[in-house]
Design goal:
Order of helices and strands: HEEEHEHEEEHEHEHEHEHHHH
CATH superfamily: NADP-dependent oxidoreductase domain
Radius of gyration: 18 Å
CATH architecture: Alpha-Beta Barrel
Bound molecules: NADP nicotinamide-adenine-dinucleotide phosphate
Largest sheet: 7 strands, parallel
Number of helices: 11
Number of strands: 11
Strand order of the largest sheet: 3-4-5-8-9-10-11
Shape: globular
Distance between the termini: 30 Å
Length: 291
């Protein structure tokens, strides 16, 4: 029998979304730079995600840059009523593919305009302020000017809801004093557990937590424990990594990234693998000790 924790939806900006969504970053070319090698394949992955019940897609105009949003528009526009597209601002790409901070209020405004144009929208559902920090981990420092710039765009009707990415608990609390924050997207997975305290606080508050790199990112998680637990129940290791996240907290929404139809289908089945207490304990230990 399926576990209700695994099959439920969770509200994202007040809209119930399936807990397994889709992260579109992997659709751009190598290094998230330039066009995909298989454009038709990328379009097919997006359409299949929707067909499989995805109603939460994560993207940004700095993926490609522009490419990922243009693919989403080509594949899915006009968008289904139930689809929540979450994008982010705060970075730009150099000519060599480097990731550059773009956190001046003017750059935030231009980032929103770029997302609107390339997604073909008049208003963005949710915009995450992507703080630079230490690239994949947050660093303390005020984010007030950036949140205020997004709040101004919200007042102008260009942004419906505001989220944060790569932030600390202190920055989350600072931002909440300026605007309502509907989600936080930080790095978190079976082996990267530095964000446990912030996740617990968002669970308490009933705010969505959306881990980026849920499978480990560019180098997917490798763990003998994960492989053993998966083999015991007849699942794939990446399905168990996602099932563990679904069972970690009810407010976790998944956005696994893939350019592969086969992997997409596997990931969409993650909710079908409820984990026993014993398996959860074994998996929990991975994050506390070397895998
Ligand atoms: N806010 C931020 O700073 C930030 C940073 C990074 C990412 N993100 C968002 O988070 C999303 C998820 O992160 P991510 O895509 O970088 O990393 P991820 O979901 O942790 O892992 C993606 C990697 O796992 C592989 N993969 C996916 N499903 C698999 C499966 N079933 N079996 C084996 N391998 C599998 C993918 O390769 P294949 O393509 O071959 O399947 C890809 O190499 C992104 O798409 C993006 O939207 C946000």
């Amino acid at each position: 029998m399926s576990n209700p924790t695994l099959t439920s939806t969770f509200p994202l900006a007040g809209r119930p979304v399936s807990r397994v969504g889709y992260g579109a970053m992997q659709l751009a070319g190598p290094g998230v730079f330039g066009p995909p090698q298989d454009r038709a394949g990328a379009i097919a992955v997006l359409r299949e995600a929707m067909a499989l019940g995805v109603n939460h897609i994560d993207t940004s105009d700095f993926y490609g840059p522009h490419i990922t949003n243009q693919l989403i528009r080509e594949a899915l526009h006009p968008y289904a009523e139930e689809l929540v597209i979450v994008t982010k601002v705060g970075a730009l790409r150099g000519a060599d593919g480097s990731w550059l901070a773009a956190l001046e209020p003017d750059q935030i405004r231009r980032g929103v305009e770029d997302n609107l144009r390339n997604l073909g929208l008049e208003a963005l559902d949710i915009v995450n302020l992507r703080n630079m920090g230490q690239i994949h981990a947050p660093a303390e420092g005020s984010i007030a000017p950036q949140v205020e710039a997004l709040a101004e765009l919200q007042r102008r009707g260009l942004v419906r809801h505001i989220g944060l990415s790569n932030v600390t608990l202190t920055q989350f609390n600072q931002a909440r004093g300026i605007a309502e924050i509907v989600c936080v997207q930080n790095q978190y997975n079976l082996v990267q557990r530095e964000d446990d305290a912030l996740l617990d606080e968002l669970t308490r508050l009933g705010i969505a937590y959306v881990p980026f790199f849920p499978l480990g990112g560019f180098t997917p998680i490798q763990s003998s424990v994960l492989a053993r637990v998966a083999a015991c129940i007849g699942a794939k290791p990446m399905q168990v990594a996602l099932a563990w996240l679904l069972q970690r907290a009810p407010n976790i929404l998944l956005i696994p990234g893939t350019a592969s139809l086969a992997h997409l289908r596997e990931n969409m089945q993650a909710a079908q693998w409820p984990l026993t207490d014993e398996a959860l304990a074994e998996l929990d230990a991975i994050g506390r000790h070397p895998a």
